[in-house]
Amino acid sequence: MTDRSSASLTSGAGPDLQEAPAPAGGSPAQAKAEKPRGLWGDAWRDLSRRPMFWIAAAIILVLVVMAIFPQLFTSIDPTHKDLSRMREEPSAEGWFGFDTQGRDIYARTIYGARASIVVGVLATLATVLLGSVVGLIAGYFGGWLDNLLSRFGEIFLGLPFVLGAIVILTTLNPATGVPNGTKIMALVIMSISILSWPICMRIMRSAAITAKQQDYVKAARALGASPARIIVRHMLPNCLAPVLVYATIALGGFIGAEATLSFLGIGLRDPIVSWGVMIADSRDYITIAPHLLLFPAGFLVVTVLAFVMLGDAVRDALDPKQK
């Protein structure tokens, strides 16, 4: 009897003992679902719940497609001139009307997205790359090197943007002869990035100073990791969030800066098609033909607003204080 009881208890205890850990650990799907997310996972989850993010992303996606594949939106040559249609108002034959040389404004607005967005993107990349490298080096090493790089950045930061751009562009690209489109675009990108990188440097420097005090950086240093490895492998991934927010907002600002420089006659010029060039061409006809200004300026405002909205959404998602 005792043997049977003990046998039955033993046989009954087996399945119970095997099944006991299941409720505590849960199924593999549950364990995966309950796995804690990192900063970027939390940020994406927060962004996906924001209507402002999706609206801005949709606008930017349309603009990027417009810049890469303008033929999907119009089959009209933006440089074709028909003087008989000079300054015609919007109609069925020309949705946005025609400019002072009889060129279709709708086609020029579509094709103008390419130059404006390319300048904004490349200027942002150059600014972020230069500012991030200098900021990481200054923040990690500190001391006299930090002071030297910080004072050097303040020299450029103290220059008024428009005045500095005028000096750079008029010196390196005097407005004489036939303009070289590629050269002018490269100079505009260079002038914007030269005058803007100290802001990104300050942001990255602050993030680097905070990151180098963390335990994982101290542990890597104690294990003998080189400064380059610590900066690239440990500090850079944890310092990207504030720079990403700045880059998103700055991109829209740089597109507006290109339009400003073109309006002043020192940025992009004909035969390049950009919103800034179109706005510059319309400045003498605003009162008699407002449609020359309305459409390129409208696309410019919507583009800048979309990037600012996207930057605000990314900032709120990455800012722990907003949680």
From TrEMBL:
InterPro entries: BP-dependent_transpt_permease (IPR050366), MetI-like (IPR000515), MetI-like_sf (IPR035906), OppC_N (IPR025966). Residues 20-31 have a biased composition (Low complexity). Residues 1-36 are annotated as: Disordered. It is found in: Cell membrane. It is a multi-pass membrane protein. Pfam families: BPD_transp_1, OppC_N. Belongs to the binding-protein-dependent transport system permease family. This is ABC transporter permease. It comes from Saccharopolyspora griseoalba.
